[in-house]
């Protein structure tokens, strides 16, 4: 998937999480989650910059999602118990945030026939084979749907509160 498609998928993954955070009175955490999800939506494609790492290899797996989650958890723990997010310590929240950020990218690439090695180092790739990565309509379509859905839940969440 290309950047626009990934941003769309990240917005769709963010929708239920963001809505939940706002509904439990954590709009700042919702905002932070959305910013991180969009900012790092392409993080797994960092493998393009390292010729030694196979594209759509380890960075497109649960191992990498766990690794990024772990780094975010360390950052959260380093901040200390200054506050909690929806009852979660910052370490836990950090892990979930990092894991979700990579997970959203994996969902986007799993839509393509090439798929992702979800259980790397096992060689099997997983694919939903919905659309080719370079399909312009799919990329723009996901992007637009992501924005519309985000606008919808933000209106509902803040309009009712
Ligand atoms: Zn990718």
Keywords:
single chain; 161 residues; mainly alpha; binds zinc ion
Summed up:
With 161 residues, the chain is mainly alpha-helical. The protein has helices spanning 3-23, 27-39, 62-79, 90-110, 136-159.
Describe the structure.
It holds the Pfam family YdjM. Keywords: Hydrolase, Membrane, Transmembrane, Transmembrane helix. InterPro entries: YdjM-like. The chain has five helices and no strands. The chain is mainly alpha-helical. The chain has one domain. The longest helix is centred in the C-terminal third of the chain and has 24 residues, at 136-159. It binds zinc ion. Zinc ion binds at residues 44-45, 60, 105, 109.
Number of domains: 1
Order of helices and strands: HHHHH
Hetero ligands: zinc ion
Q: How helical, in percent, are the residues?
A: 55-70%
Task: Name the poorly predicted regions.
Answer: none
What's the gyration radius in Å?
A: 16 Å
What separation lies between the terminal Cα atoms? 36 Å
Number of strands: 0
Mean pLDDT: 96
Q: What can be said about the biggest beta sheet?
A: none
Task: Report the structural category.
Answer: mainly alpha
* Coarse shape: flat
What fraction strand?
Answer: under 5%
Total count of helical runs of at least 4 residues:
5
């Amino acid at each position: 998937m290309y950047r626009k498609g990934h941003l769309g998928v990240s917005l769709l993954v963010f929708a239920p999480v963001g809505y939940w955070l706002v509904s439990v009175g954590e709009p700042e955490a919702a905002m932070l989650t959305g910013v991180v999800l969009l900012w790092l939506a392409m993080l797994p494609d960092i493998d393009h910059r390292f010729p030694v790492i196979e594209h759509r290899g380890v960075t497109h797996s649960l191992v990498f999602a766990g690794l990024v989650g772990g780094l975010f958890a360390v950052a959260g723990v380093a901040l200390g118990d200054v506050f909690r997010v929806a009852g979660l310590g910052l370490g836990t929240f950090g892990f979930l945030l990092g894991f979700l950020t990579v997970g959203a990218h994996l969902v986007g690439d799993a839509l393509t026939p090439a798929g992702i090695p979800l259980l790397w180092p096992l060689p099997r790739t997983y694919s939903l084979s919905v659309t080719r990565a370079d399909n312009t309509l799919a990329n723009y379509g996901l992007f637009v749907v992501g924005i519309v859905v985000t606008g919808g839940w933000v209106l509902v969440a803040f309009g009712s509160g």
